[in-house]
Amino acid sequence: MSKIGESWGRYPNANQTVVVLTNRHADLPAATGSVLPYGNGRSYGDSCLNDGGTLLHARPMDRFIRFDTQTGVLECEAGVLFSEILDLVVPQGWFLPVTPGTKFVTVGGAIANDVHGKNHHKAGTFGQHVLEFELLRSDGSRRICSPQQHPEWFAATIGGLGLTGLVTRATIQLRRVAGPWMSAEVYRFHNLREFFQLSQASDRDYEYTVAWIDCASQGKALGRGIFTRANHAPAHPDRRPHAPSRRVRVPVTSPVSLINPLSLRAFNTLYYHRQRESVSHLTMHFEPHFYPLDGIGDWNRIYGPRGFMQYQCVVPPSVSLDCMETLVKTIAASGEGSFLAVLKQFGDITSPGMLSFPRPGTTLALDFPNRGPGTLALLDRLDDIVGAAGGAVYPAKDARMPARYFKQYFPAWESFSHYIDPKFSSSLWRRVSE
Amino acid sequence: MQKVVIIGATSAIAESTARLYAARGAQLFLVARNVMRLKDMAEDLRVRGAADVFHAPLDVNDVQDHAHLLEQIWTSLGHVDVLLVAHGTLPDQAQCEASVELALKEFATNGTSTIALVTAVVPRFEAQQKGVIAVISSVAGDRGRQSNYLYGSAKAAITAFSSGLRQRLAKVGVNVLTIKPGFVDTPMTRGFKKGALWAKPDTVAKGIVRAADRGRSVVYLPGFWLLIMLIIRHIPEFVFKRIKL
What we know:
Strand content of chain A: 15-25%
Largest sheet of chain B: 7 strands, parallel
CATH class of chain B: Alpha Beta
Strand order of the largest sheet of chain A: 15-11-13-12-18-19-17-20
GO cellular component, one term (chain B): membrane
Number of helices of chain B: 9
Distance between the termini of chain A: 32 Å
Helix content of chain A: 10-25%
CATH topology of the domain at 181-402 in chain A: Vanillyl-alcohol Oxidase, Chain A, domain 3
Radius of gyration of chain B: 18 Å
Pfam family, one (chain B): adh_short
Oligomer: heterodimer
Keywords (chain B): Membrane, Oxidoreductase, Transmembrane, Transmembrane helix
Strand content of chain B: 15-25%
CATH architecture of chain B: 3-Layer(aba) Sandwich
CATH topology of chain B: Rossmann fold
Radius of gyration of chain A: 21 Å
Structural class of chain A: alpha+beta
Shape of chain A: globular
Family (chain B): Belongs to the short-chain dehydrogenases/reductases (SDR) family.
Largest interface: A-B, 13 and 10 residues
GO molecular function (chain B): oxidoreductase activity
CATH architecture of the domain at 181-402 in chain A: 3-Layer(aba) Sandwich
Number of strands of chain B: 7
CATH superfamily of chain B: NAD(P)-binding Rossmann-like Domain
Number of helices of chain A: 12
Structural class of chain B: alpha/beta
Shape of chain B: globular
């Protein structure tokens, strides 16, 4: 478990008072200074931090309210984890409509960041499947928000970074599945051009597509990687569902980052070559398919005491190939490298939130051990590339983007700011709205 | 289908335990002071698979209401497989030293209310000749320590009471389970600095269900507390008096 009041990247540090919320019917607790809802601390940067203020720890609001097994409509409190939803609904033939790469996010956090997953080209963002939620404001008012009811509050709160008030409970539409199995195909590609071809050929018939790219290699191997496409598989009654495997954990924070240029190159090369054939077909359980890293508890500790930074950007379709090549070249040349570089084509379903990150184009997610000024300078260079291309950077993963770029990436920020609760603020918001 | 009654159902350990029974499809009867929280919990447990969830409000210190409550429970469920008595508070030791009234009130909440309720329920278990009466005591009841001996003495009463009752009811096929949790990270202990000895309510809940299933008599949860308390109980008084615990 991450420590309450810490973000997943463990950077930056923040000092804040934590107030635990357990009762969704109660008014917001009195607090001096500003408040910010905090779920399970899986945002990477400072969007879930409120330095000098108060965090409203909403994870303990974790009750289900109703689940219609016929229609797949689920209502629950905002602190319920995606993992808890899956445990409940998968055996009954339902699945999350959209899930990010970890199942340890709360429903409230998923709304506040309008999260997306490998099926963005088919299903859009998580907010697309939120039927309604209750928004509690510091003046004691409660609004039921949906696309029909208070649509302006709905749009402001989805992707609204927790700033518009506290989401106490939400109703979401699940999707049908035959069972826990996925049928997947894994392709090795040699360069970014091949990635775009594979992705384009797959987006129509495959619900889930994603690629991992080797960010340590340059020259001829630049932009090589592994592309996965998958669908929910028909039922396999003969296959026993996995017993919940014992999770391994990283027991302590490594004194220095274990991710360095040497280990990065080795890892990336091994990962690229781990499958011998250039194509393989497999039937796998949904857990390793969607959540490969969730099997390792506290994996963020391998980055050492200084933590790490994520960088996820999206660039428009018209420039995506050139832009991705420039980004990958810049990263490879810097030697900073990234261990988990994820590449994905977003679809063109409009995101429901005013500040939603997903938009048509190609998205690249990277993580960098925090090596101080060198890392920050590299991310600034990436911002220049993304900014010039008319792209955007994902606030849920950010700890450092300059205010001028935030305002360019999210032109609705000013109209959004009218919906911010006067008692609410976050470290990120103070940084990017100055 | 198991029929499970939980007194003090809205406590963190009790709620985690209720979720485990709900996932098994049990029928539940929840008792606590706060009706609103009981309703929320009942909704949640139905979604999690409980066959049925009944609930009724009760302040355990209103001993005159116990008989009526038990009548209601048996009318709703027919019989009871597991009765979990989980209510309690964590009194402030210093305040209990300053006020006789508070000390007796806290002793009642954590000690005598359980003795009253369990005494009243025993004839029903004797009549059905099966089932488990599980009572949450505490490691604090194993030896009075200066930091919380009011709480410890109430829990010591529960431990001794349940031990005697166990011996008595073993003859009619009813098991009495004494549960001794160590430090548990719950709203009750919010003000404490947490270290390696602290357990999650869910871990303790799993231990309770397992112990009830297996007909255990006394469990320390997590199990390492057995060893810690063995040592603490055996510290000679002349040493014990000189240290702080």
